[in-house]
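Let us work through a complete example step by step.
Step 1: write down the sequence.
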Amino acid sequence: MDFHKHVHSYNGKTSFFGDHDHVFMGVTSAPIEYQDSHVHDLWGITTYDAGHMHGYKKETGPAIQLPGGNHTHRFEASTNRVDRHRHLMDGKVNPAEMEKLPE
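Step 2: predict the structure and record it as tokens.
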């Protein structure tokens, strides 16, 4: 499958642990071919809350087509362990257009 390079922005809040959660946001990698679709890498660091932050790295699921030619991807991830705990992250990346390259 040929497609233009594109990225997706994403943001959200982690699961709550103890007395806190964290915010995460970022931009995915360029597309990575996967079967008859593609995926993206997401990685970054959460906000600094309750005296610490967490890192994360995960691959999205394949493209989910949306009306009008846009698409999104689901992700589920766990942060790294800091202060004897992790947080869960899940959601969808913000939609992007997927255009095929001319043959």
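Step 3: interpret the result. Residues 9-97 form one domain.
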